[in-house]
Design goal:
Blueprint (H helix, E strand, L loop, with lengths): L1 H17 L5 E3 L2 H8 L7 E4 L5 E4 L17 E4 L7 H11 L4 E4 L6 H10 L4 E4 L3 H6 L4 H22 L8 H14 L4 E2 L4 E4 L20 E6 L1 E3 L2 E2 L2 E6 L6 H19 L7 H14 L11 E3 L6 E5 L12 E4 L2 E4 L3 E4 L2 E4 L9 E2 L11
Parallel strand pairs: 1-5, 3-4, 5-6
Antiparallel strand pairs: 1-2, 2-3, 7-10, 8-9, 9-12, 10-11, 13-14, 13-15, 15-18, 16-17, 18-19
Helix pairs in contact: 3-4, 6-7, 8-9
């Protein structure tokens, strides 16, 4: 795999050189993992000049809690853990004769940025911006394979929960059980805090589970994801507790399902991000829920569960093949509850069968 990380860093180096920067300083956690494999928390990666350098506060080869960095990287461990890897990397760049350094300003505090400037006053600092995040959007086969496994794990955990008795159990209890099942099936952890909402809490985006107990007739909405080798899946489903859903529940579910299906079907290389959002949003607007739709109906997934691209009305850009996204419209009716349906998919051209669905738990409105 070292050649994969080396190729990624080479692409970044070319972009920096084209922008007039002699080297790049990468400090974002997910960006470090993308370019250097595993590294201790707080590390910094110097891409150029010369051989790339990973600066750490502790030795990654003796750190039992972490993995190993890419084999072709030079590693420099600071003599004291109080040191700042970003500052040390900037010093190394200046000592190597670099005249300019592109930094991830959005990942540096003001104090840290000033410290970098102070140790290398002759080094011109440019803003690298989201260059690495943009490079991460299109995934290779290995990355998609990890996402596929992460999706399978989430499907397994959710499927087992649906086979258990739910009435009388609290949202918090169900969320903890789902997270345990994710680990049992091979996840390194959760992709994000698991959300379970019942009754009037159902359909709320990012709802923090409470001690409310599941009751007959409730909507039950669940949103979870697995972290597998750093790659994060996402799935949400909504069910009814009891034998027969109420008419309003059936109607609302069908509306959200139609919107989610429209968003999924719009996923194709060359489609504008905003057009995917629009495809799902118009369905809910026509149903009278325009004001209840969130600021976007989807987003990219990968090393972060919420990354570029943003599928939103104001988003700029177009989809490429091999871009994994979550399509997750939802509607919440205050005091009554709501519906969320969310899938992880990979954008594929029509010739390859269209979007690849990674999360396959049924989207039928089940009465549990």
């Amino acid at each position: 795999m070292s050649e994969v990380y080396a190729a990624r860093r080479a692409r970044l180096r070319e972009r920096c050189e084209a922008g007039g920067s002699a080297a790049a300083l990468v400090t974002g956690e997910a960006n470090l993992r993308y370019l250097a494999a595993d590294a201790p928390a707080g590390s910094a990666l110097l891409v150029g000049p010369g051989q790339d350098l990973l600066v750490c506060t502790r030795d990654p080869f003796t750190d039992v809690a972490g993995g190993r960095p890419a084999e072709d990287l030079r590693v420099f461990v600071l003599p004291t853990p109080e040191g700042d890897p970003a500052v040390a990397a900037a010093e190394r760049a200046a000592a190597a004769g670099a005249a300019s350094l592109a930094v991830e300003e959005h990942h540096l505090t003001v104090a840290r940025h000033r410290a970098v400037c102070s140790v290398a006053p002759r080094l011109r600092l440019d803003d690298l911006g989201t260059a690495v995040e943009q490079q991460r959007i299109v995934k290779d086969n290995e990355e998609i394979s990890c996402l596929r496994i992460a999706a399978e794990i989430a499907d397994q955990a959710l499927g087992e929960l649906l086979e258990s008795i739910l009435v009388g159990r609290t949202e918090r209890h169900l969320a903890l059980e789902l997270e345990r099942r994710l680990i049992d099936h091979g996840a390194e952890g959760t992709a994000f805090p698991t959300s379970v909402g019942t009754g009037p809490h159902s359909g709320l985006a990012g709802h923090t589970p409470t001690d409310r107990r599941v009751e007959e007739g409730d909507f039950l909405s669940v949103c979870l994801g697995a972290d597998y080798r750093g790659y994060r899946s996402e799935i949400a489903r909504t069910f009814v507790i009891g034998t027969s859903p109420a008419d309003w529940q059936i109607e609302l579910y069908e509306q959200v399902f139609a919107a989610q299906r429209a968003g999924r079907e719009a996923l194709a290389p060359g489609t504008a991000y905003r057009d995917v959002d629009r495809a799902a949003r118009v369905v809910l607007e026509a149903a009278g829920h325009g004001e209840r739709v969130g600021p976007r109906v989807g987003h990219g997934v990968g090393l972060e569960n919420d990354e570029d691209p943003r599928l939103a009305p104001s988003a700029m850009g177009k989809l490429d093949a091999c871009v994994p996204v979550a399509v997750d419209p939802g509607v919440h009716l205050p005091g009554r509850g709501g519906v969320r349906i969310d899938d992880t998919l990979v954008v594929r051209p029509e010739a390859d069968g269209g979007p690849e669905l990674l999360t396959i738990t049924t989207k039928e409105l089940l009465a549990l």
